[in-house]
Amino acid sequence: MKLKSVLIENFRAIEKIQLPLHPQLTVLVGENGTGKTSFLDAISMVLGEIPSYFKLQKRRFFDDNDLTNHLKSSIESAPYVRVQLENMAGLTWHYESQPSQKNEPQLNSLTELHKYLEQMINDLNESKIVEIPVLAYYGMNRDTLTIPNESQFDREFHRFDALKNALNVTPDFGTLFEWFFGQENLEHREKFERKDLDY
Q1: How far is CA 45 from CA 3, 124, 139, 178, in A?
Q2: Where in the chain is the domain with CATH 3.40.50.300?
Q3: Which pTM does this prediction carry?
Q4: What share of the chain is helix, strand, coil (3-state, %, to 5)?
Q5: 101, pLDDT greater than 60
Q6: Torsion of CA 29, 32, 35, 38, to 10 degrees
Q7: 122 or 99: whose pLDDT is higher?
Q8: Which helix or strand (DSSP H or E) is residue 85 part of?
Q9: Which CATH number fits domain 3-125: 3.90.76.10, 3.40.50.1370, 3.40.50.300, 3.30.9.10?
Q10: Exposed, middle or buried: residue 32 (CB in 10 Å: 0-12, 13-18, 19+)?
């Protein structure tokens, strides 16, 4: 899934920004403290609706620190926060929250996304070829904290495993090690069966 545009209002230091995204690559450049991480956090929060729909991750809500405090003459927060995404196919969804709503997004704004995801499930159940969204968001801490024991590597991966914890700020690269090790084993077996070391 490629995003076409992002609209963010009253999210942290961002009062309002609407940014079209390039279909291949968008690069955010700015000095420290200008909102690059806030921009990415906002996108990941709304993209998080996809793995949460499949029960692979908890839905993240806005909290009090996400509401902009940009009103110049008072210390009041903005009346709402809104983050809207549009993909290349024209599918649009958003999270919007007001302090009085206990910072939970309006779920009716997700109807079209949920229809899209439900159709994906139906197509998979009918054995149709389906592309599932690929999501990944890595925060500033990209250390590999633990490398799994190789004895745990022999397991089967399912397509939706790619969405598990894909948007956690502190990624766990252990699953990547497991997948890579499994792929390497498949290649070694195939070379042996074909008796072709160049395979």
Answers
A1: 14, 26, 13, 27
A2: 3-125
A3: 0.75
A4: 35, 15, 50
A5: no
A6: 110
A7: 122
A8: strand 81-87
A9: 3.40.50.300
A10: exposed
